[in-house]
Amino acid sequence: MTFVRVVGFRNNRLPLLAALIAIGLLLPALALAQTPAPAPTSVPEIALKLPRDLSPWGMFLAADIVVKAVMIGLVFASVLTWTIWFAKAIELMIARRRMSGAIDALNEAGSWNDAAARLQGHKNGTADLIRAADTELRLSADALSPDGVKERIASRLERIEAAAGRAMIRGTGLLATIGATAPFVGLFGTVWGIMNSFIGISKSHTTNLAVVAPGIAEALLATALGLVAAIPAVVMYNMFSRWIAGYRALHADAAAEILRIVSRDLDRGTLTHRPAERRRSVTAAE
């Protein structure tokens, strides 16, 4: 009887002990379940506020007003550069072609009258040289020394050549200005945009790359536009400098050929009476 009671007592204690162990295991899980969930961080909220469009147009729209002004100015400078290139290239090509044709006509002329007749009514640099030389021949109709006449004609032709070079180079100085200043203007926009990005970092109290990257990308776009405006401007300026030097060389060739024709006719004596006779006819007409 005693053994049965002890065994029965122990059998009654086993379910109670198992229940206590189960309760002890469940208490931590219940405590974790009742702990409030941590508040969501501000990263998703910041991410929602970031610009989704990082295309050049989207970065332009999201940029600061100062950076926008810099970008607009650089785009205008780039358009102006290509406009100057288009207009000046056509002008130079037409002028050089006309000069080359006029020089060929001068080379084929056998006398001053023939050269003046070949280029009569033409509107190019060589025709201007012919008119200047003819004007000096009229004014020097009573001159005694042919050498003095040739020197005065050479002086006139030299001035016309310099004036033609100055007229042709007009507008290319703007290319040099754009090429020299556009990178620094773009750098100013970049510095301003990065300053605004750092200010935004300090206000948001985060250094997340997703927060910093858009502002820096917008700032670097100004530098890219500065290079886009400056590099073609520098290349075009150097190209036009070579072309204009060649155009002035054609003027020099035409002037040298005119001097040769005048000198040849002066030595022959064919120009001795023609200017005086022309002056007398003009005086009689008046």
**Major β-sheet, in short?**
none
Beta-strand segment tally:
0
Strand content: under 5%
* Overall pLDDT metric: 75
* Overall morphology: rod-shaped
In the predicted model, the low-confidence regions spanning at least 5 consecutive residues are 1-10, 29-35, 39-48, 273-286
Radius of gyration: 45 Å
Measured as a percent range, the helix fraction is: over 70%
Number of helices: 10
SSE order, one letter for each helix or strand: HHHHHHHHHH
Structural class: mainly alpha
Distance between the termini: 169 Å
Provide structural commentary.
The protein is an all-alpha fold. It has a domain at 66-185 and 225-281. The chain contains ten helices and no strands. Helix 4 (65-108) runs parallel beside helix 9 (209-268) and helix 6 packs parallel to helix 9 (209-268). The chain is rod-shaped, with a radius of gyration of 45 Å. Mean pLDDT is 75; it is low at 1-10, 29-35, 39-48 and 273-286.
Write the layout of secondary structure elements.
Layout: H1 2-34, H2 43-49, H3 56-62, H4 65-108, H5 112-118, H6 125-139, H7 146-169, H8 172-204, H9 209-268, H10 274-285
Helix pairs in contact: 3-9, 4-8, 4-9, 6-7, 6-9, 7-9, 8-9
